[in-house]
Write a structure and sequence with these properties.
- By secondary structure, this protein is α/β, with parallel strands linked by helices.
- Helix content is 36%, strand content 24%.
- It has twelve helices and 24 strands.
- The protein has a seven-stranded mixed β-sheet.
- The radius of gyration is 24 Å and the shape is elongated.
- It binds MU-OXO-diiron.
- The site of MU-OXO-diiron has 9 residues, from helix 2.
């Protein structure tokens, strides 16, 4: 993938990963990109690198602009290996005068690469360096999403190089937001937020406020994954504000797994009850819906209702996986409920409720367990459960 000049003398030199399909449990059905940026200035400066297997594409891109040996500064906004996989090789090739990183970034680099001898220069929020005609200001973004994470802001270009924040896992031939379908772009951005940043929402709120207080004028946001926000930086900032407030709408998800379709029948009856109350509702069978796609839908859903048959005195494995994943991402201010069929012991509903309680969901109802196959009366109770949850959703509006 050819380099792209994103600002005068500032180039995208990253790599596009068309093949990746799983990113730590997040399904990357359309691949991703690892964005790195090269500023050609009095001090030639490289911002971040790429995942190691894509080293030749990355080095080729740098060589299209300059000899890597001429690079003076490396800026490491984030130490996770999708951005530092090529760092040891870059240090060897460039022999940089300085490697700029946050205090936690230095610690993380020493832990990853066991190189105390690299020319680290630790920077903190508010610190700035001059490259020549442009400067770089640093903003630490601790725990967004690693302790070492930071932003680099270039005031002369009104450009925020934002590391993982505002990214999307989406491999494309285009580099800018205005060159792709806007609706699809936001689906990828929402999936990224729901699956990577949701649990840090209160920190995102503080960061957005901090960026505003610092008065950073931003007309381009260049994340380390996906498209660069050239035409709509404000839109993604507004979306992050909304998502990090954990704002929901009258929408419910019925997430279930089933052995012999009894739990599925219950799911459909609960669905009918919700729809009757005018609630937007989705049936998400875990046999066909990936956990990370469920989380994307959960981003704006007020109620999450989980159903599982009982297997070996517990819930089905896909439900255990889903709940463990969801709990880690900490959706807040949600209504929850459980249901499921069983043969003789029936622990699944109790176990689901225990997870929902731990995750601080508002549980309106003990849930419904049905032996073997739901009767007409059982299904009527499921419809009523849907009605009750629907009414509770409307009361929160
Ligand atoms: Fe894209 Fe946290 O690495």
């Amino acid at each position: 993938m050819a380099t792209v000049e994103i600002k005068e003398d500032l180039y995208w030199v990253g790599a596009v990963d068309w093949e990746i399909r799983d990113f730590h449990g997040y399904s990357t059905k359309k691949g991703t990109t690892y964005n790195a940026f090269l500023a050609m200035d009095e001090k030639i400066t490289l911002f971040d690198t790429v995942k190691k297997p894509l080293r030749s594409e990355f080095l080729h891109n740098i060589r299209r602009i300059t000899d890597p040996a001429k690079i003076d500064y490396l800026i490491v906004n984030h130490v996770e290996m999708d951005h530092t996989g090529c760092l040891p090789e870059m240090v060897e090739l460039a022999k940089p005068e300085k490697i700029f990183c946050s205090p936690m970034g230095k610690k993380a680099m020493v832990d990853h690469f066991q190189r105390e001898d690299w020319p680290y220069q630790v920077v903190k929020t508010g610190d700035a360096i001059r490259l020549g005609k442009r400067s770089v200001q640093f903003v630490e973004t601790r725990m967004l999403h690693w302790p070492d994470s930071m932003f680099s802001y270039i005031p002369e270009d009104r450009l925020l190089i934002s590391s993982d924040a505002f990214g999307q896992h989406w491999a494309t031939s285009e580099r800018f937001d205005d060159e792709v379908d806007g609706a699809e772009l936001f689906v990828h951005a929402a999936k990224y937020y729901a699956n990577i940043l949701l649990l840090y929402s209160s920190l995102v709120q503080k960061l957005l406020q901090g960026v505003q207080d610092m008065g950073l004028a931003i007309d381009m946001i260049a994340p380390d994954h996906g498209l660069i926000w050239r035409s709509h930086p404000q839109k993604i900032l507004e979306a992050y504000d909304r998502w990090s407030r954990q704002e929901t709408r009258p929408k419910a998800l019925i997430i279930y797994d089933t052995m012999w379709n009894s739990t599925q029948k219950m799911a459909k009856a609960i669905f009918d009850g919700l729809v009757k109350e005018g609630i937007t509702c989705q049936l998400l069978d875990l046999q066909g819906n990936h956990r990370s796609d469920v989380m994307t839908e959960a981003l704006d859903a007020k109620a999450l209702i989980f159903g599982s048959s009982t297997l070996n005195n517990g819930m089905l494995p896909r439900m255990a996986d889903m709940l463990s994943y969801m709990k880690g991402l900490r959706p807040a201010n949600r209504i929850g409920a459980a249901f499921g069929s069983y043969g003789w012991s029936g622990e699944a509903v109790k176990q689901i409720n225990a997870v929902l309680e731990e995750a601080k969901f508002q549980i309106l109802d003990p849930g419904i367990s049905v032996k073997y196959v739901p009767t007409h009366e059982d299904l009527r109770k499921c419809v009523q459960l849907g009605n009750r949850i629907g009414k509770a959703i409307k009361e929160t509006e």
